[in-house]
Amino acid sequence: MDISNRGLNLIKEFEGLELEAYQDIVGVWTIGYGHTSMAGPPEVKPGMEITEAEASEILRRDLGQYENGVERAVKVEITQNMFDALVSLTYNIGVNAMKGSTFIKRINNRDYEGAAEAMKWWNKAGGRVVAGLKRRREAEAALFLEGYSPEDTDILDDQRGAPIEENSPRRGNLGESRTVGGATAAGGAGAVAAGSVFLDNRNDANEESGSEDTAGGETPGDGDASAGDGGTSTDDGDPPNCQEPLEEGEELTDTELAECELAEEETPEVVDVPETETPAEPVSTIEKAEEVFVSAVGSDEALDAIVIAAGVIAIIAAIYIVIARVDDWRNHKR
């Protein structure tokens, strides 16, 4: 790549044309458009004079080595404006200084805005800032970035087979943010963990409730049996003569004896009815289960489990946010 007329005119503007040899700000003998003996022939000596055409020819010849130096140092594709600005700067500071400079390192890392900023640092001569050098660096940095847009970097010419990616980590839609999505996922996982804790507590409560119901169901049965065995309860439907002692000389008729025998046969069935067909039992079981569940959820163990689950949610979400931000910085930094 060769310097354009625009870049050439930039150099001429800041170097200025001197047809007679002079000493620059640091004492180096110079002539024409900033030509020195270090750039090659002709050797500049005190009292030397040249014409404007000779000055332009010398400048063109001198720029060849600086153009080659820039091309060798830059490892990435750059625009014509960038090349012109770099040649102008290199012509002013030298090829060796350019090769080890910060702005070249940033260019090769595709940090073009950072490179333009680093170009402005070369504004000193003899250890002090020079106004003319400061203006020149500003002009070179402006030319370097002219026509450049951050969106132009890392753009593929052929999109076939290439994954579509976001160009910048600065997302306007929170729903599309990996950070928010990851935090949501982490929160969901924590919620599942907390839910499992409550389910475990509920299962424990149901088991405890079931054991109490079993014990409670046996107690009324025992009481009913003891009442039946003791004979303390009477059935108004039984014949009276079957329950009372007979007087002397009194006898039961065949019909009464048959009724008493029938009553004795039916008595066990009457006792078993409350145990198998009592409608109040299911209601009592549900109420006891609810009491046990409420007690389990409100216990210290359940509260500790909730606190632990909330802590796990917060830690997972924080870790994911940090990882996502670091990944954004590494892959999308400007």
TrEMBL record:
Keywords for this protein: Antimicrobial, Bacteriolytic enzyme, Glycosidase, Host cytoplasm, Hydrolase, Membrane, Transmembrane, Transmembrane helix
Gene Ontology biological process terms from the UniProt entry: cell wall macromolecule catabolic process; defense response to bacterium; killing of cells of another organism; peptidoglycan catabolic process
Region (Disordered): 151-186, 202-282
Highest taxon of source: Bacteria
TM segment ranges: 305-324
Gene Ontology molecular function: any one: lysozyme activity
Acidic residues bias: start-end ranges: 245-275
Record field: catalytic activity: Hydrolysis of (1->4)-beta-linkages between N-acetylmuramic acid and N-acetyl-D-glucosamine residues in a peptidoglycan and between N-acetyl-D-glucosamine residues in chitodextrins
First-level EC class: hydrolase
Entry's family note: Belongs to the glycosyl hydrolase 24 family.
PANTHER family: LYSOZYME RRRD-RELATED (PTHR38107:SF3), PTHR38107
Protein name: Lysozyme
The organism's taxonomic lineage, starting at the top: Bacteria, Pseudomonadati, Pseudomonadota, Alphaproteobacteria, Parvularculales
